[in-house]
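=== RUN LOG ===
request id: a7f3
mode: sequence -> structure
chains: 1
length: 169
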Amino acid sequence: MAKKTQRKLVIQFIQYMVSGGVYFWVGYLAFALFYGVHSDSFTFNGLGWNLWWSTITSNVIGWSVNYVMQRFWVFDNKSLKNHATQVTGRYIFITLVDFGLNYLILYGLRQIGITPYIGQFISSAFFTVWNYIWYRFWVFPEKIKKKRAVISPARVVAHRPHGPAAFRN
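=== RESULT ===
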């Protein structure tokens, strides 16, 4: 790997870690606000929401911040501009997968006596690697393959010409 490419990847990974930290802390603080903080020495009831609603709401807030940082700073690729719908759809898909996995991790850890506050740190270690791979190679890739139009007999038959010629006998 060329030194310039290697340097670019190191800088990109550092940016990824910074934006991931912003996502984590924004989501973590929102979670504390919604769920509350309960320990032997300190109690903050917050809004008193249950685990499900606290998790989903704090994640939506964090996801929004994360998307903007990942798309426009970490993986700032001008060629993605023309594929905003595809990139956003991929981000939403992988984010929903992440949410389900994260909830299962937090729920499972809570069942064995580990507080969701510690569980968030445990799950974030997994998602740091998991998401970098998905973001770099699938969600925000260097190049997106253009989809070729598939011309099938059904498509040809279903096609109707547009404009004045379509209304002639």
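=== NOTES ===
Residues 3-167 form one domain.
The chain has a mean pLDDT of 85.
=== END ===
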